[in-house]
Amino acid sequence: MKIRLPLPALICVLVALPVLPVRADEPETELGEHMEKMSGPFRRLRRQASDASKNANSLAQIAIIREHLEAALTLEPVMKEDIPAAKQAKFVADYKKKMREMIELIGKVEAAIKANDNEKALMLVGDVSKAQKQNHKNFKRKDK
Q: The CATH number of 28-139 is which of 3.30.70.1560, 3.40.1440.10, 1.20.120.10, 3.40.50.10490?
């Protein structure tokens, strides 16, 4: 007995894929766009920070990250709308303070790479990663 169900089922799935609603990882805000554009360069930096032969590329990635961090500093998180009006100013001030700290941390990574201290750069990249995760907990609206 031959089973012919898998082939028609596979064809139906392949035909339906373009029609299915797919939530693309499109940023919804200008801030989200900057964060998304930092994601790739930061992943590359994390992978290559310990490799001194890739310091030139690491510095290029840092420049991209810094550019988007500085742009993000001028914006406000959407989560501000979820905060009571009386606390919004403090929320935004805290966000900007943390963004400045991130810029400072990236500056330290850059200095370590320029000094060819890749071990320290790798440690600092870990600090940046930890700070990023904590900041996302505090300032990023939870996905629904």
A: 1.20.120.10
